[in-house]
Amino acid sequence: MTIHDVPSIDRQQTPPAVTASDNEGLDAALSSRRLKSAIATSMVLIALWGGFHWDDPASWVVGVPTALIGGALVLFLPSSATLRLSPLGVLRFAKFAIIGILRGAVDVSWRSLSPRALQPGLIPWRTYLPKGRPRQLFAVAITLLPGTLTARIVDDVLTVHALNPSNATQAEIAALEAHIAALYRLDCKEVLS
To answer: Which of 9, 91, 119, 144 is deepest in the core (most CB within 10 A)?
Structure first.
């Protein structure tokens, strides 16, 4: 290749410019989606407040404005890709979470009464879940497992602190990861490729 084979800068094609109408359409779609998300968030927060404080009508003076502010804050969060949730995955994950909370409470209580059962350690865990909501939920949901918490996240590696870093704990982490993949309709082969 010689210098004559490369077109000069004035003969190169430039990418088409984004027109104002393209930006307006995109902004309208994003703002509409974000507004719906803000309203949905406010409604969920109001429902949660009502569930926790149903017997105290005076608390709504604080609860409703707080829920509306929480929903409005969604408008300022960076946008992320929309992920499809599986309704069946949501039910399975809810069941897994409830059982995990109960098992975790019993397990940690038992271990606190029997200090010899404590053998804390760290488990490095490379996740196949993509960045964003699935990985964040995984990192937070690890605390549902008995005696575990996420101590650190670097790229796709989570450092999990466990009261008993055994093969059983690693199997539970793998099961949690599979539940979250099913929740977001992710196929691990699809994610790994």
So the answer is: 144
